[in-house]
Amino acid sequence: MQWISAFTRLFHILDQGQSPAYHSGSQFIKVVQQFDPGLPDYPLYMEERRKANKSTTRRDFYWDILNGLDEATRYEVFRAFIDIVSPHFPNEAQDLRSYLFGGGNPVPKAQVPTDSWNSEKLNTSISRIDNAIDSNNFNNAMTLAYSCLEGLYKAYVRKHVPNQASLSDLIPLSKAVRTDIEQKLSQKGPFPAQMVTSISTLTGAIANSRNGFSDSHFDEDANKWLATYSRDLVNSIGRLVLHFL
Fold first, then answer.
1. ∠ at Cα 87 (81, 91), nearest 5°?
2. Largest alpha-carbon pair distance within the chain?
3. CB contact at 8 A, 223 and 141
4. Which of 93, 79, 77 is nearest to 21 (CA)?
5. pTM (predicted TM-score)
6. What does the DSSP 8-state code read for residue 41?
7. How do residues 15-34 score in pLDDT, each as one tens digit?
């Protein structure tokens, strides 16, 4: 009953046709796909429902999608939607947040596995950030950017700087990675130091932006710019570090 009540509250917000909070079927699925990548895109999903003689009304299939998620993932999806709609319906979003989370204001969790980092994993992470940006969930895009670098740096430190494997914060991790790469390059002769220095500079930009992002209320263009900029930084830093990983 808790989930039915929570969904009723959420759907009321998502169904406001003249509001920026309105979510079409395609937009709704894009948000959920951030947490359930196996969910088909809208056209295929609707085709499968028709074949199964299931209702294709938005209210019915929104509920079926949410109800099909495991509970932990369902919480994350609700957090994401609350973040998206709160600038437009702050009171209703806060009521829903209080109903599900006891009044807390959690940043959406975004865990990126830290083992076996490679270009394919980086590309997948960038795609997840892109999906968050496409669905206007800029808060989650920033969290994904932070989490992606955190996983990448931890993998590097465990492999190349094991004596600092206990580091957990992003900026100290980036410094450990940068120092090790500088040492490796210096053994080969002169190198463009500014390139390696950029690891700390750009990581700091993401860490500082993300730390205060959930409490920031810029307009949509500013949020999108910040999230897009962070995505590009993650892509650049990630490919530089992977070269040495």
1. 85
2. 68
3. no
4. 93
5. 0.60
6. P
7. 998 898 999 999 999 999 98
